[in-house]
Write a structure and sequence with these properties.
Oligomer: single chain
Organism: Streptomyces rubiginosohelvolus
Radius of gyration: 21 Å
Order of helices and strands: EHEHEHEHEHHH
Structural class: alpha/beta
InterPro entries: Bact_response_regulator, CheY-like_superfamily, Sig_transdc_resp-reg_receiver
Strand content: 5-15%
Largest sheet: 5 strands, parallel
Number of helices: 7
Strand order of the largest sheet: 2-1-3-4-5
Protein name: Two-component system response regulator
Keywords: Coiled coil, Phosphoprotein
Length: about 230
């Protein structure tokens, strides 16, 4: 069963949260509500999220302050933030949103289809990264196990490497298709940059797998760089 991505919706008005849930329900992901910046930060302590939709105008801790806290935490600093605002104070207000770490800044009322499309890109990137981490973890476990394996297991690593290579090829194909889609749709620079970062990770993992193939002279201790 494919695990669903979590999307954090932050707004102090229940009717706005209800509207966001109606728009994003078609993505079939897990939608998590937060009615304040403090509540959002609490949710981020325990759960991983693909993207955060953050209202700017909130009593107490506003969206800018909430984003600043999110970006200061190592666990959450890389989560994409899309700011939503009912008012537009001009370029300076928009610039403040991007300076706070937002990947996008959308004024209400917004086009539901556009918002859903933007969120879906970040959900897809998140899922690709999750698959990549799973492949790396499988490889690491196998390499650690090989250090204790006896003669009866000598043929197992080759079979596992072949399986990992096939799985990685599938992820590489999906990542390539996603990159082409982003190019065709002239997507946000942040989404394109995230896709490029994912492709660099995939390239590193592919090189590590190739180095482990028999006859290549690769060392069993070679692992793809994380980051």
């Amino acid at each position: 069963m494919v695990q669903k991505a979590k999307i954090l919706l932050v707004d102090d008005r229940p009717e706005n949260l209800l509207a966001l849930e109606a728009i994003l329900s078609a993505l079939d992901q897990t939608l998590v509500r937060a009615s304040s910046g403090e509540e959002a930060l609490k949710a981020l302590l325990t759960d991983d999220f693909a993207v955060i939709l953050l209202d700017v105008q909130m009593p107490g801790m506003d969206g800018f302050e909430t984003a600043a806290h999110i970006k200061r935490r190592e666990r959450t600093r890389d989560i994409p933030i899309i700011f939503l605002t009912a008012i537009n104070h001009g370029p300076h207000h928009t610039f403040r949103g991007y300076a706070a770490g937002a990947v996008d800044y959308i004024s209400k009322p917004f086009d539901p289809w556009v918002l859903r499309a933007k969120v879906s890109v970040f959900v897809e990137l998140y899922m690709k990264n999750c698959k990549l981490r799973e492949q790396a973890a499988l490889l690491r476990l196998q390499l650690e196990g090989d250090g204790h394996a006896g003669g009866e297991h000598e043929k197992e690593p080759a079979g596992l490497l072949a399986e990992l290579s096939a799985r990685l090829a599938a992820v590489e194909e999906q990542a390539e298709a996603l990159s082409k889609q982003l190019d065709d749709e002239s997507a946000d620079a942040a989404a394109v940059a995230t896709a490029a970062h994912l492709e660099r990770k995939l390239t590193g993992l592919r090189r590590a797998l190739d180095a482990l193939e028999p006859g290549t002279g690769g060392a069993a201790g070679v692992l793809p760089a994380q980051g």
